[in-house]
């Protein structure tokens, strides 16, 4: 037995590891944190291509190839080739007949010459008048028959792709088979319209006439689609010619169908195809500028491909409401760009499906949303980026992937109880299982588990106050603020799970933000920076945790310009009123009495803002940081860790 090996070309590598959708989510996260919706971020990702997969093309790459192919077709297609060939053959036949008549001095020869002189300039009418002409020249008769064979082949090929080769040699039996095929096809369409068609009917039809349909349709719907697209392309060919050319070619087509006995059957077929696919551009002209004339069948094929490429371009743009990758016709991609493009499209579809299947995205009433799992991932990614930018030698902070414990280990263990957060003592747990089993294969029960005892670690009540005003978006600091908030949330959840963290957003008023809400949050297009209200909410959070160490962090790009009145309505004034500043500083004093240090991170170098934060630092004893947007996360996280270490 012999074996042969060669490179695999029938699709993507079946042994390649699956694409890690987490990197795709991270790529989307940057856009989402900058203000894009999850749907827009996903569409942008699919257009650019998958990160970490350079061999996979995105929708924009496929779109560029489609547009390049359309341009090539338009620049190399000329539609009047059959008409030119018909004119040339007609002129040749007439010239051969005149050469035969010229030496003959008889009146009959002069009469025939006058009849040839009186032929209309229109090719279709000239051919019609010569249909019953008794040619004296055998060569002229043969040329005229060649003209009629050409028209018959081209007309049928324009409707049924591949028919030209089947009718290369004139054969009455072949034409009779074509007439019978069209009759059976129309009868099958009529039965389908009445609901009487079955797949067995189609299979019998293909067994008898399958050689006439090289695209090998699998059912009647596929056959109708193929025939309708070609018939529509034939109509577009006529619409793309000049009025004179259109009249000539239409006349030749009608004559050819009449002489072949196919006119009525072709009319029935055209009506049925139009009724089933009225959405096709049946009469829309196409602009082409080629120099080399094409036969009618080839021109129809080119126009059909141009129409397919136009539909494919629309689907690849994905810029219409409700657009999905499933809208892109895989067969059209294969015809236009080959098998590799199909594989690229499938890779993009797989990412879209896996993001939902793995629980990162969900659809709620037709709207694409991030799940809590995705928000946690974005926070972890933001935290890794922050740690990557920290100077580990100077700050001593490193990324830690394992969950934090509730305190320092004491060296003792105890039985596990429901709700314990202490780490499992693996060795003691397995030993307990071995002892209980008495030498049998180890199987663990709940009673076998033991946890490491720890000393209690001091907990912190963390308040992160984030400015949501419109100026944050104008200065380009909005994404950095959200990313910082998610990073701090991830840090507390992973390294300090005993801490109580609350994120508070403020613009004209303040509100508590959930992590999953924060990721997709947009800035508020309202006037006002109501730090007064934000400090009020933060104070309630600290009061609910009196035994926790208070940590208050403020991220803003402007001084307070609004406060909350007694009736609960925010009041905005610019420049800031004395009442706003007084009420805000009063809340700062309350924070000081709670022993809560307020650290402010300024994202603007405004003189009014600097004066205000300097006053906050003087009253509270906190620190002021003038951070750039790209280093905001580093400043906030490192300051939080410094505060936790000092305690």
Account of the 3D structure:
- This protein has about 650 residues and is of the alpha/beta class.
- The protein has four domains: about 230 residues, no CATH class; about 30 residues; about 40 residues, no CATH class; about 180 residues, Rossmann fold (3-Layer(aba) Sandwich).
- Helices cover about 55% and strands about 10% of the residues.
- A six-stranded mixed β-sheet has the order 7-6-5-8-11-12, sandwiched between helices. The chain has a two-stranded antiparallel ribbon with strand order 1-2.
- Helix 7 packs across helix 12, helix 9 runs antiparallel to helix 10 and helix 24 runs parallel beside helix 25.
- The chain is elongated, with a radius of gyration of 40 Å.
- About 0% of the residues have low confidence.
- This is VWFA domain-containing protein.
Helices and strands, with pairings:
Layout: H1 21-33, H2 38-48, H3 59-75, H4 81-101, H5 107-117, H6 123-129, H7 138-159, H8 163-166, H9 172-193, H10 199-209, H11 220-240, H12 243-260, H13 263-276, H14 296-317, H15 330-337, H16 339-357, E1 361-364, E2 367-370, H17 372-389, H18 392-395, E3 409-415, H19 426-437, E4 450-454, E5 460-467, H20 470-474, H21 478-495, E6 500-506, E7 510-513, H22 515-519, H23 531-543, E8 549-556, E9 562-564, E10 570-572, H24 578-593, E11 597-602, H25 607-620, E12 624-626, H26 632-646
Parallel strand pairs: 5-6, 5-8, 8-11, 11-12
Antiparallel strand pairs: 1-2, 3-4, 6-7, 9-10
Helix pairs in contact: 1-2, 1-17, 3-14, 4-7, 6-12, 7-12, 7-14, 9-10, 9-13, 11-13, 11-14, 15-16, 17-21, 21-26, 23-24, 24-25
């Amino acid at each position: 037995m012999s074996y042969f090996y060669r490179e695999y070309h029938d699709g993507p590598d079946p042994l390649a590891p699956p694409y890690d959708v987490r990197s795709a989510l991270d790529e989307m996260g940057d856009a989402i944190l900058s203000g894009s919706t999850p749907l827009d971020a996903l569409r942008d990702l699919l257009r650019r291509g998958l990160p970490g997969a350079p061999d996979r093309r995105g929708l924009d790459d496929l779109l560029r190839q489609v547009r390049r192919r359309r341009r090539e077709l338009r620049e190399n297609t000329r539609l009047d080739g059959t008409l030119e060939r018909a004119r040339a053959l007609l002129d040749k036949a007439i010239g051969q007949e005149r050469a035969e008549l010229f030496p003959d001095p008889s009146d009959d020869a002069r009469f025939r010459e006058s009849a040839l002189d009186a032929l209309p300039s229109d090719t279709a009418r000239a051919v019609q008048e010569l249909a019953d002409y008794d040619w004296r020249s055998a060569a002229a008769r043969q040329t005229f028959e060649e003209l009629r064979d050409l028209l018959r082949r081209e007309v049928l090929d324009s409707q049924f792709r591949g028919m030209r080769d089947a009718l290369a040699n004139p054969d009455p039996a072949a034409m009779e088979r074509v007439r019978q095929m069209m009759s059976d096809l129309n009868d099958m369409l009529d039965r389908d319209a009445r609901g009487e068609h079955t797949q067995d009917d189609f299979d019998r039809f293909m067994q008898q006439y399958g050689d006439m349909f090289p695209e090998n349709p699998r059912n009647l719907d596929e056959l109708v689609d193929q025939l309708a697209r070609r018939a529509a392309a034939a109509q577009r060919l006529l619409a793309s010619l000049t009025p004179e050319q259109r009249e000539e070619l239409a006349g030749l087509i009608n004559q050819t169908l009449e002489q072949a006995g196919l006119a009525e059957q072709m009319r029935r077929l055209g009506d049925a195809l139009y009724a089933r696919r009225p959405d096709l551009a049946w009469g829309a002209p196409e602009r082409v500028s080629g120099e080399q004339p094409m036969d009618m069948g080839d021109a129809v094929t080119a126009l059909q491909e141009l129409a397919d490429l136009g539909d494919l371009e629309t689907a690849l743009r994905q810029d219409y409401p409700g657009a999905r990758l499933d809208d892109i016709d895989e067969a059209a991609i294969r015809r236009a760009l080959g098998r590799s493009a199909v594989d690229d499209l499938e890779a993009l579809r797989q990412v879209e499906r896996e993001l939902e299947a793995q629980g990162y995205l969900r659809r709620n009433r037709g709207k694409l949303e991030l799940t809590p799992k995705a928000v946690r991932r974005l926070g972890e990614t933001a935290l890794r980026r922050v740690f990557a930018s920290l100077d580990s030698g100077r700050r001593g902070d490193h990324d830690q992937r394992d969950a934090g414990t509730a305190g320092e280990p004491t060296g003792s263990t105890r039985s596990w109880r429901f709700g314990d957060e202490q780490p499992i003592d693996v060795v003691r747990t397995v030993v307990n299982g071995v002892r209980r089993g008495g030498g049998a294969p180890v199987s663990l029960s709940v009673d076998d588990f033991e946890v490491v005892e720890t000393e209690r670690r001091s907990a912190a009540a963390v308040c992160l106050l984030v400015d949501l005003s419109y100026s944050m978006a104008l200065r380009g600091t909005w994404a950095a603020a959200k990313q910082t908030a998610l990073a701090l949330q991830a840090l507390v959840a992973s390294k300090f799970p005993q801490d109580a963290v609350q994120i508070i957003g403020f613009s004209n008023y303040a509100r508590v933000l959930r992590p999953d809400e924060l990721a997709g949050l947009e800035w508020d297009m309202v006037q006002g920076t109501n730090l007064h209200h934000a400090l009020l909410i933060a104070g309630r959070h600290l009061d609910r945790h009196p035994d926790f160490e208070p940590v208050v962090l403020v991220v803003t790009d402007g001084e307070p310009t609004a406060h909350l009145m007694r009736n609960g309505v925010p009041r905005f004034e610019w420049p800031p009123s004395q009442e706003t500043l007084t009420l805000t500083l009063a809340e700062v004093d309350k924070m000081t009495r709670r022993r809560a240090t307020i650290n402010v991170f300024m994202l603007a170098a405004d003189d009014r803002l600097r004066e205000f934060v300097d006053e906050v630092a003087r009253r509270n004893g906190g620190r002021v940081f003038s951070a750039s947007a790209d280093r905001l996360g580093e400043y906030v996280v490192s300051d939080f860790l410094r505060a936790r270490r000092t305690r």
